UniProtKB/TrEMBL annotation:
Residues 269-430 form the Helicase ATP-binding domain. GO terms for molecular function: DNA helicase activity; hydrolase activity. InterPro entries: ATP-dep_DNA_helicase_RecG, DEAD/DEAH_box_helicase_dom, Helicase_ATP-bd, Helicase_C-like, NA-bd_OB-fold, P-loop_NTPase, RecG/Mfd, RecG_dom3_C. Plays a critical role in recombination and DNA repair. Helps process Holliday junction intermediates to mature products by catalyzing branch migration. Has replication fork regression activity, unwinds stalled or blocked replication forks to make a HJ that can be resolved. Has a DNA unwinding activity characteristic of a DNA helicase with 3'-5' polarity. PANTHER family: ATP-DEPENDENT DNA HELICASE HOMOLOG RECG, CHLOROPLASTIC. The keyword Lyase does not apply. It catalyses: ATP + H2O = ADP + phosphate + H(+); Couples ATP hydrolysis with the unwinding of duplex DNA by translocating in the 3'-5' direction. Keywords: ATP-binding, DNA damage, DNA recombination, DNA repair, DNA-binding, Helicase, Hydrolase, Isomerase, Nucleotide-binding. SMART domains: DEXDc, HELICc. This is ATP-dependent DNA helicase RecG. It comes from Planococcus shenhongbingii. It comes from the Bacteria.
Length: 680
C-alpha cells in the first residue's frame, strides 16, 4: 500500500531531505499527505476598495512613474513605484529587489501580490509578474517547514505523494456522518486542502477535516470518561434526602434556580455507582461555596467524610468560618488544616481524622501530606482547581477509595474550551447571581484623571471602606513605562500620609509576608492595598468597595474580570476604575467590554475571540489541545456536534463491533487513551 511506504521512496528525497522530514515527524507517504498547510496564499484578483487593512492582496495595475531605488546598506534596498490600480493610485514597494527597476516601465501592466496598507495606500510586494494575470493557481499552500526544505520542493513532494497514495486511503468517517453533514470524501478533501481549485473547494475540504479532527478528539475524551467511570468504580453515597433538605431550608438565603440545578446534578452523581468527575463553574459571587457545603453535608449524612482544598490559607480559613456558621445547628465536626497548624493541635486533627471523628476537613495543600489519612473519604472538592497541579489533585483523590471529585473555579471558561480542555469531565455552570447583589459600577478613565480618581477613592475611605490598587509590575523597568507597585505605594503613602494606611503586596514577598499583609487588609488595619495580581483569586473582604486597576490595557479580559470580583462582595455599592490609554483597537475593545457587562461568561467568550485559546489559560498549563485544522473560536458549532456524536458512538454497542466504525476504533486505540486511562 503506497501510503505506508517510506517518504524516502519519493523522487527527489535524498538522505538530507529524509532526515529533515523525519524531524518534522514525516516518515511515510501517509504522514506527508496528512501534513496540512497552515494557510494558503490567495492569488485571486481583488478590488482594493473591498480589501481590509493589512490583508494580503493580488491586484493588476499600470505603472505610472519611474521607479526609484534607495540603497539602505549592505545588500539592502527599497524600490518604490506608483501604480494605478482601478481608481486607486498606490505606491508599490519592493524590498531588496533592485533589479525590478529595469522591468517596471511607465504604461506597463503588472500583477502585484503583497500586504495592503489601507491608510498609506501602499502595497508591500512579495510576488510580482510583468503583464496581466493569466493562468496560474488561485491558492497556493504554505506549510510549516524545517531545515533546507523549501515551499516549492515540498509542494512537488506533496503532488507526487497525493498522486501515488490518495486513492489507497480508507475514509475513516462513516457514510452516515458524511451524508448528514454533506462532507466530501477523504480523497477529494485531501486534493482540495493541498491544491484547491477555488475558494469553495478549499472551504469544503476544511469543513471535512475540521469535523473529523474534532470527532476523533472527542471520541478519545468520551472513551476516557467511559473507561474511568466503569473501571475505577466509585463510592455509592446513600445520603439522607430529608436531612439534606432540612439543611438547605435553614440557610439564611434562598438558593437561586441555577444553584438548585447544579445541586441536583451533583446529588444525582453522588447516588451513582461510578466516581463523580465534575467541574463547577461559577462567576465571582455566584454562590459556589454553598453548593460545596450542600454536597459535603450530603456525604456526611451517608456516614462518610468530605475534604475541601483551597489554594491559600486565607481562603481555606474563610471557607472554614463560613461552613462553621452554616453547620452550627447540625452535628458536623469541621476541622481546618493548613501549614500554620503545628505541633499537638496538628497531631490531634490527624488522629481524629483517621478515627473518622472529623466529618469535613478544610485546608490547603497540607491536606495531601502523607500522614493525613481519612477513615472513609467520600467527596473531594478542589477550589480554584487550576491553581493546583494534576499530581496534587490526584494525591488527594487517592486518599479514599475513588471518592467523588468536584472541581470548582471562578474563572469563567467559554463553553468551547470547557468541552475541549475538560472534555472528560461533566461541567456544571452557575449562570445566575444571587438576588439583591449590586452590580459593580465600572469606569474607563485616562491617565490624566488619576488625581480625580484618588479623590473619589478618598471619599470611600472616609466612609470607613477599603480600596485595592492593582499594578502590572513590581519595580521600574527600562523596557516598559507602566506604573509599578512600589512607586505607586510610595506615592499613595505620601498622599494619604497619616490619614489612611497603605499596604504593599506582590509576588516577591515570601508566603508568610503575603499572608500577614492580606490578613491586615482583611482585618481592616490596612485601608488601601497596592498589589500586583496576586490578589486575583479567593480574597473576600466585604468592606472593600473601590478598585483602581492601573495600566488596565496590560491585562486580558478574564483577568480584569477576576480582579474586579475582589470588590462588590458586601452590601455596599462598589466601583472599579480602569486607568488605561490603549493604543490598539483590541485594547480599546477590552476596556469598552468591561464597562458594558459584569457577566464573566460573556467576557470570557469575548476574551477568547480577542486573544485565542492559546493565551486564555496562560502558556504554561493551557490544557487546550492543539489542532491541525480546527479553530476553537470559529468552529464551536462543529465542536458541539462532534462531542454529541462521539458521546453517542462511545455509548453504543455498535461502535465497538461494527465494520463501519472500525477505522475510528483503530485511531482511538492508536492514541493510547484506552490503554492508559488518560490523555497525554
Amino acid at each position: 500500500m503506497a501510503s505506508k511506504d517510506s517518504v524516502a521512496s519519493l523522487k527527489g528525497v535524498g538522505k538530507q531531505a529524509a532526515e529533515t522530514l523525519q524531524e518534522m515527524k514525516i516518515e511515510t507517504i501517509h504522514d506527508l499527505i496528512m501534513t496540512f498547510p497552515y494557510r494558503h496564499e490567495d492569488f485571486q484578483l481583488k478590488d482594493l476598495a473591498d480589501t481590509p487593512h493589512n490583508e494580503r492582496v493580488t491586484v493588476e495595475g499600470r505603472v505610472e512613474s519611474e521607479p526609484s531605488v534607495l540603497f539602505l546598506g549592505k545588500n539592502k534596498s527599497r524600490t518604490q513605484v506608483q501604480v494605478m490600480v482601478g481608481r486607486h493610485l498606490v505606491k508599490a514597494i519592493f524590498f531588496n529587489q533592485p533589479y525590478v527597476k529595469a522591468k517596471l516601465r511607465i504604461g506597463e501592466v503588472v500583477t502585484l501580490s503583497g500586504k495592503w496598507d489601507r491608510g498609506r495606500q501602499v502595497i508591500t510586494v512579495t510576488n510580482h509578474s510583468i503583464g496581466p494575470r493569466t493562468g496560474g493557481v488561485d491558492f497556493e499552500p504554505v506549510y510549516s517547514l524545517k531545515g533546507s526544505i523549501f515551499q516549492k520542493t515540498f509542494r512537488k513532494l506533496m503532488r507526487q505523494a497525493l498522486d501515488l497514495a490518495k486513492d489507497d486511503l480508507e475514509d475513516c468517517l462513516p457514510e452516515r456522518f458524511r451524508t448528514a453533514y454533506h462532507l466530501v470524501p477523504v480523497q477529494d478533501a485531501l486534493e482540495w486542502i493541498h491544491f484547491p481549485t477555488d475558494g469553495e473547494a478549499l472551504k469544503q475540504a476544511r469543513r471535512r477535516f475540521v469535523y473529523e479532527e474534532l470527532l476523533i478528539f472527542q471520541l478519545k475524551m468520551q472513551a476516557l470518561r467511559k473507561k474511568n467511570r466503569e473501571e475505577e468504580g466509585g463510592s455509592f453515597v446513600d445520603y439522607d434526602l430529608n436531612r439534606l433538605k432540612h439543611f438547605i431550608d435553614t440557610l439564611p438565603f434562598d438558593l437561586t434556580d441555577a444553584q438548585k440545578r447544579v445541586v441536583n446534578e451533583i446529588c444525582r452523581d453522588l447516588k451513582e455507582p461510578f466516581r463523580m468527575n465534575r467541574l463547577l463553574q461559577g462567576d465571582v459571587g455566584s454562590g459556589k461555596t454553598v453548593v460545596a457545603a450542600i454536597a459535603l453535608y450530603a456525604v456526611v449524612t451517608a456516614g462518610m467524610q468530605g475534604a475541601l482544598m483551597a489554594p491559600t490559607e486565607i481562603l481555606a480559613e474563610q471557607h472554614a468560618n463560613t461552613l462553621a456558621q452554616w453547620f452550627e445547628p447540625f452535628e458536623v465536626n469541621i476541622a481546618l488544616l493548613t501549614g500554620s497548624v503545628k505541633g499537638k493541635k496538628r497531631q490531634f486533627i490527624i488522629d481524629q481524622l483517621a478515627d473518622g471523628k472529623i466529618d469535613i476537613l478544610i485546608g490547603t495543600h497540607a491536606l495531601i501530606q502523607p500522614n493525613v489519612q481519612f477513615k472513609k473519604l467520600g467527596l473531594v472538592i478542589t477550589d480554584e482547581q487550576h491553581r493546583f497541579g494534576v499530581d496534587q489533585r490526584r494525591v488527594l483523590k487517592d486518599k479514599g477509595y475513588n471518592p467523588d471529585v468536584l472541581f470548582m473555579t471562578a474563572t469563567p471558561i467559554p463553553r468551547t474550551l470547557a468541552i475541549s480542555a475538560f472534555g472528560e469531565m461533566d461541567v456544571s455552570v452557575i449562570d445566575e447571581m444571587p438576588v439583591g447583589r449590586k452590580e459593580i459600577q465600572t469606569y474607563w478613565m485616562k491617565k490624566e484623571m488619576f488625581g480625580k480618581i484618588v479623590g473619589r477613592m478618598e471619599k470611600e475611605l472616609a466612609e470607613g471602606r477599603q480600596a485595592y490598587v492593582i499594578c502590572p509590575l513590581i519595580e521600574e523597568s527600562d523596557k516598559l513605562d507602566y506604573q509599578n507597585a512600589v512607586d505607586l505605594f510610595q506615592q499613595l503613602s505620601s498622599y494619604f500620609h497619616e490619614k489612611h494606611t497603605v499596604g504593599l503586596m506582590h509576588g516577591r514577598l515570601s508566603g508568610d509576608e503575603k499572608e500577614q499583609t492580606m490578613r491586615a487588609f482583611t482585618e481592616g488595619s490596612i485601608e488601601v492595598l497596592v498589589s500586583t495580581t496576586v490578589v486575583e483569586v479567593g480574597v473576600n473582604v466585604p468592606n472593600a468597595t473601590f478598585m483602581l486597576i492601573y495600566d488596565a490595557e496590560r491585562f486580558g479580559l478574564s483577568q480584569l474580570h477576576q480582579l474586579r470580583g475582589r470588590v462588590g462582595r458586601g452590601s455596599d455599592q462598589s466601583y472599579c476604575v480602569l486607568l488605561a490609554d490603549p493604543k490598539t483597537e483590541v485594547g480599546k475593545e477590552r476596556m469598552t467590554s468591561m464597562t458594558e457587562t459584569n457577566d464573566g461568561f460573556v467576557l470570557a467568550e469575548k476574551d477568547l475571540q480577542l486573544r485565542g485559546p492559546g493565551d486564555f489559560f496562560g502558556r504554561k498549563q493551557s490544557g487546550v489541545p492543539e489542532f491541525k485544522m480546527a479553530d476553537l473560536v470559529h468552529d464551536y458549532r462543529a465542536l458541539e456536534t462532534a462531542r454529541r456524536d462521539a458521546e453517542a458512538l462511545v455509548n453504543s454497542q455498535e461502535f465497538w463491533t461494527s465494520e463501519e466504525t472500525r477505522c475510528l476504533r483503530e485511531q482511538l486505540e492508536d492514541s493510547g487513551a484506552l490503554a492508559t486511562g488518560r490523555l497525554d
